[in-house]
Amino acid sequence: AVLGASGTNNVMHMAGELVLKNVEIQGQLPGGKQNEHGLLAGGGKVTAEDLTISGASGSALRNKGAEVVLKNVTVDGFGGYNAISNAYSDNEKDYGNVSIENMTVTNAVGKTNDLILIYNECPGTMTIVDAKLELDADDTVPKSNVNVLDGNVTLRNVTFGKTHSNNVRVDGGLLNLENIVIPGHVEGSPENVHGLYTPGGEVIAKDLTITGTTGAGLRNTAGKVTVENLKIENVGSHTLYISGGETKLTNATIGKTCTNNVALHDGKLTLVNAEILGHVQTAPSDAHAIFVYGGALELDTVTITGTTGSASRVKAGTANAKNLTLD
């Protein structure tokens, strides 16, 4: 079935159960209201399989209190701020959950610089498995791929494109990542934007790669970050920049950079079974593998190689190491 373009939210479901199979939702008419959604779920349950949403002036999916389960989804055009968003209901108390399996997001209708593809702002859960979120148009670059304010978000086997601000940002709640590559930023992005940025909340990740950032690969200011099997490479600034919170990285490869690989200003950083690869040839002589300005550093089975400056410099704070290899 094809549900033609409308002047407002194309499909709006508030109670009961809605089942969609092999349906195309064509979004909004040209010149219609802005920030109207392809599918607005305000309550009840929505189940869909083989669903296409195109031309939405707002979000492709805006969930505000429903239980939403989607499989085989194509988003070809959204124009508000998010492709998929999970928010409080209108009473600002209730919220729902979203589960999506096998999704492709290819295009944005709007050319705003504020696009965030995945946005969870309520205590609900969002699970996305086996998805490709890469916009086709060269002139439409998302601000961020993911922003978690609250709730429990799980992303597994999801492919992202580059952004012009923090690629993945967690302000609150919990973000679970598994088998994810964070591909950094487009050319011309500011130097103070990062691959994974955690001003709050918690991140638990396994098999994570961060690459191509203009700022730090991982920037933690106040969150809790736990990663197993991490690789960070081709960054424009610090590989790790920690100024608060708690960060534990196990089986980590900390790639080359042009400044201090690891900068610890505050908080706690633990590296277990890690390799720090030092610096590129153009790095200055005062670039160190680890610079501790403050906070607490714990190293267990760490190899440091290829530095232009010191392997480790401690200006303030504490540093403890065992099984440390310098090459």
Which terms summarize this structure?
327 residues, mainly beta, 25-stranded parallel β-sheet, 0% helix, 55% strand, elongated
Summarize the structure.
With 327 residues, the chain is mainly beta. Helix content is 0%, strand content 55%. The radius of gyration is 21 Å and the shape is elongated.
Task: Give a structural overview.
This protein has about 325 residues and is mostly beta strands. The chain has no helices and 25 strands. The chain has a 25-stranded parallel β-sheet that branches.
The number of strands is: 25
The number of helices is 0
The unreliable regions are none
The biggest sheet amounts to: 25 strands, parallel
**Helix coverage percent of residues?**
under 10%
Give the end-to-end Cα distance, rounded to a whole number of Å.
Answer: 64 Å
The fraction of residues assigned to DSSP E strands is: over 45%
Topology diagram in text:
Layout: E1 2-3, E2 11-13, E3 17-25, E4 39-41, E5 45-56, E6 61-63, E7 67-78, E8 82-86, E9 97-107, E10 116-120, E11 125-133, E12 144-148, E13 152-160, E14 168-170, E15 174-182, E16 196-198, E17 202-211, E18 218-220, E19 224-233, E20 240-254, E21 262-276, E22 290-292, E23 296-304, E24 312-314, E25 318-326
